Amino acid sequence: MAKFKLDEIDHQILDMLIDNTRVPFTDIAKKLLISAGTVHVRVKKMDDAGIIKGSSLTLDYTKLGYSFIAYVGVFLQNTSQTKFVLERINDIPYVTVAHVTTGKFNIFCKIRAKNTEHAKDIIFMLDDIDGVYRTETMISLEESINDKKRLMHDIFNELN
Q1: What strand order describes the sheet that includes 95-100?
Q2: How far apart are CA 68 and CA 114, in angstroms?
Q3: Is residue 154 part of a domain?
Q4: How would you classify residue 141: left for phi > 0, otherwise alpha for psi between -120 and 50, otherwise beta?
Q5: Residues with Cβ < 8 Å from 131, sequence gap 6 or more?
Q6: Does pLDDT of 96 surpass 90?
Q7: Which among 9, 28, 74, 105 is least surrounded, fewest beta carbons within 10 Å?
Q8: Is residue 29 assigned to a domain?
């Protein structure tokens, strides 16, 4: 499959969509001095090429009462249990991210909880999964960097 070529217009479109996935194509078109049809065609091409994968909505979990964030490293009794354990982890809605990893942990999870008591309950749920040997938890004091644009800008500069 040929590598999809992004130009400066594509980059600017992506830049605006990262800020707000719901921005109307007409607003993007006005800012870039192109037609809304051109924006639509370019977004469709990037979508078809797999560069854009859906769109997402960012929730303010703190306002929803889930301000406690922790990262839980999961140690498995056997790596052959990874798929089974991931299926069980997927049943716990408070685990918002899970990665199969190398190094210290077999699986690394991000959890969101209401408070420390709730987080303890979630961690116990993880501990109770068959195949989990033990867990190790790190509490997030603050999310200091969550920037989707810096990497995109760097990738774009490398392509040009």
Answers
A1: 95-100, 107-113, 68-76, 132-139
A2: 6
A3: no
A4: alpha
A5: 76, 77, 78, 81, 84, 85
A6: yes
A7: 9
A8: yes
Task: Quote the mean pLDDT of the chain.
Answer: 92
pTM score above 0.85: no
Mean pLDDT (whole number) for 69-96: 97
Q: What is the pLDDT of residues 7-30, one digit of tens each?
A: 999 999 999 998 888 999 999 999
Domain membership of residue 156 (yes or no) is: no
Rounded to an integer, what distance in angstroms lies between the CA atom of residue 106 and that of residue 132? 10
Residue 132 CB contacts under 8 Å (≥ 6 apart), including other chains: 74, 75, 76, 77, 85, 126
Mean pLDDT to the nearest integer, 140-150: 87
Domains in the chain, number: 2
For residues 119 and 91, membership in a common domain is answered with yes
Range of the domain at 97: 68-139
In a domain, 114, yes or no: yes
